[in-house]
Amino acid sequence: MTMPFENYTIKDIAKALNLSPSTVSRALRDSYEISTETKKLVIAYAEKINYRVNPIARSLKERKSYSLGIIVSEIANNFFSQVIDGIESIAYDKNYQVVISQTRESADRERLNVEHFYSRSMDGLLMALSSETTDIQYLQNLTEKGFPIVFFDRVPSEIQAHKVTIDNRMGAYQAVDYLQKSGKKRIGHLTSAEHLSITKERLSGYKTGLLAGGLDFDPKLVKYCKYGGLHQDEINQAVAELIEQDIDGIFISGDKLTTGYLLAIKQNQEYLQLNIEVAGFTNSKVVSLFTPEISTVRQPAFEIGKRAAELLIGQIESKHREEAYEHIILGTEFIAK
Q: Which residues contact 242 (CB under 8 A, 6 or more apart)?
């Protein structure tokens, strides 16, 4: 039975257990300096009295806010919402709070979000670049000042920082290889802004998949959506142009693009009758309900969030400035319909 809520302090725990306040503090932070037995003792007592860290006192003492900023294009996107869940699972365990903002694919809004988080003394940022972003000098300046930023999904190649991505080329290759082995000869590609890292890598996988089936690459069968599926009108236009090219299969490179394509097809019965086979990236939990059925490339979104958060918190809590940065590349799962 837990005790009623009171404002217990580290000193109260230390007095009750006959330990020093510094030992209790280190035990609660899971410090390597404290024995496992002592940690268990301290944590058990802290749970018994419903002890919670005072974030204001802690931040003043350690000159840290214990807050992480997350910047994504759209929180409602299945992929990004699952990444955020992964980030929060690690942040909560390490007593960090997260603040989430969305860019709606706007470079200006992204910069305002970054500047706001930096000015509010966030300890670090986790971010996926917006589809409009081409000027990353201000992010370069922040990382050079030592401000911790971990990039995931859409990452800048020019900045030295921790990054977490998936094997985009392999995921795309598997989807296109499946389509060509199903007998498709004109496989279209619906993708995001041309300059994004995920666009370039998935386009490379698309080309390799075509090559594996002895099919020629035709640039007319690739349609770029600058806003990555955020605007349905943009998708409708791209789909109409692909239909004019007599495609019999399509590989789609993003979650919002995939659901946007399916909506465009549903709105036009003539398109439905063409029976174009679909393979695309989506982390939707209701993919089995889609019509027409699609083969999917599923990303380990939760794991991406976890790994990114671990890298960021590790960088924040390191006593030394990072000299080497990790680029973690995770695998995808292809699920044929």
A: 188, 190, 221, 223, 250
* pTM flag (> 0.85): no
Kind and range of the H or E run holding 70: strand 67-72
Domain 168-298 top-level CATH class: alpha beta
pLDDT band at 53 (very low <50, low <70, confident <90, very high): low
Non-local CB neighbours of 58 within 8 Å, separated by 6+ positions = 64, 66
Residue with tokens 């699609």: 294
pLDDT in tens, 269-302: 888 888 899 999 999 887 777 778 899 999 999 9
Residue 293 is encoded by which pair of tokens? 């059925």
Q: What does the buried/exposed string (b/e) look like for 250-285 if buried means 16 or more CB atoms within 10 Å of the residue's CB?
A: bbbbbbbbbbbbbebbeeeeebeeeebbbbbbbbbe
Please say whether the beta carbons of 145 and 308 come within 8 A: no
- Distance (Å, whole) CA 274 – CA 208: 26
Question: Tokens 């909506």 appear where?
Answer: 263
| Neighbour-count burial of 328, counting CB atoms closer than 10 A to its CB (0-12 exposed, 13-18 middle, 19+ buried) | middle
- Report d(CA 132, CA 125) in Å as an integer: 19
Architecture of the domain made up of 63-165+302-329:
3-Layer(aba) Sandwich (3.40)
Domain ranges of the chain: 10-52, 63-165+302-329, 168-298
Asked if the domains at 63-165+302-329 and 168-298 fall in one CATH topology, the answer is yes
Sign of CA dihedral 22, 26, 32, 37: positive
